[in-house]
Amino acid sequence: MIALLLPAIQAAREAARQTQCSNHLKQIGLAVHNFHDTRQGLPPSVITSARGGTANALDRGRPSFHILLLPYLEQTALWEELLFLSDNLDNETQGTFWDTTLSETSKKGFGSIPLFKCPTRRSGYAYMDSTSDASGWSGNDYPYGPRVDYVIPNSRRAPGDPEDLYEHGSTWEWHNPAHLDFQRGPFRLALIENDLPRNWKPRDAMSWWQDGTSNQFIFAEKHIPAAALEKCQSTGGPSGTASNYYWDCGIGFAGGSWREPHVARAATSRNPISDGDIGGRQVIARQPNHAENSNPDNGAFGSWHPGSCFFLVGDGSVRSVPVTTLSLLVARLVDVGDGYTVEIP
């Protein structure tokens, strides 16, 4: 009798965890809308500026989308602590701040934010500092901060290119102010006045989502292979191959091309579309260990829920998307203005 009941109990528990995960994304969606109503614009992907006028020499230590959303996720106490300790988030490097300035209690507080975690994948607190598994990282290159299970979907398309010619498989351009015209995802960089990060304001209003809120993916579960959970390295994937894209690193302060995959994931590739897949890759991981030894552009999004991955839509709804969904369909739903009317699976 127990053997007969156990699968049913496990299925019921997973159904409850999926409901909770979906609700987390829904709360993030409400926070995005509240941010927009309060600040008259969308939350930026990251606050960053060019050093010495050189667009590629980006400041490190600037808050990411997840951190900027804290006051709208009922995490005002943590947000105020950041402002108090880091001089309005303007002068601190992430190394000094996360590894030295924050107390152990505060680190656990940031790592315990329930809305950033999928209950099927993890529970308790999870954060990244220099005492974490981070071989290959050094100094301020550490991706400090909370570990999260949800990311911004990103798309890149050259201005004037036909809608189908998506390109650039990594997210390396989403934080570069010199390439704003290529960024087609739902959230872009903050608008910086006088090159001072503290003088930031939202760059885009909700009108940036030109295809309409109900046709726009704005947040998603990210793929982390089971072997990489709670690990963060720059080289040497879960089975000994390079797959930095999959490591479970912190998202506190994003900037620099080695940290942004933990905050945003790409729905596009530099390779041409083939048979509905972009560059022949599947952007939604098929299962928890999908492609852990292959190209890091493979499996940007994914969950540990069987057969599906949750995506947050711009109107605040959450959709359970089959893992077999064609990559081209995902890319079109991430692109803010490709002009296609796509039915969400």
Shape: globular
Strand content: 5-15%
Output the strand order for the largest sheet. Answer: 9-5-8-12-13
Secondary-structure element string = HEEHHHHEEEEEEEEEEEH
Mean pLDDT: 76
General description of the model:
The chain has 6 helices and 13 strands. Helix content is 22%, strand content 12%. The protein has one domain. The two termini are 38 Å apart. The longest helix is centred in the N-terminal third of the chain and has 38 residues, at 2-39. The strands form 5 sheets. Strands 9-5-8-12-13 form a 5-stranded mixed β-sheet. A two-stranded antiparallel ribbon has the order 1-2. Strands 3-4 form a two-stranded antiparallel ribbon. It has 345 residues and is of the alpha+beta class. It has helices at 2-39, 65-68, 76-85, 94-101, 104-111, 327-334, and strands spanning 50-51, 54-58, 127-128, 145-146, 150-154, 191-192, 200-201, 217-221, 264-266, 273-274, 277-278, 308-313, 318-322.
Based on the model shown, name its key terms.
two-stranded antiparallel sheet, globular, 345 residues, alpha+beta, five-stranded mixed sheet, 6 helices, 13 strands
Topology:
Layout: H1 2-39, E1 50-51, E2 54-58, H2 65-68, H3 76-85, H4 94-101, H5 104-111, E3 127-128, E4 145-146, E5 150-154, E6 191-192, E7 200-201, E8 217-221, E9 264-266, E10 273-274, E11 277-278, E12 308-313, E13 318-322, H6 327-334
Parallel strand pairs: 5-9
Antiparallel strand pairs: 1-2, 3-4, 5-8, 6-7, 8-12, 10-11, 12-13
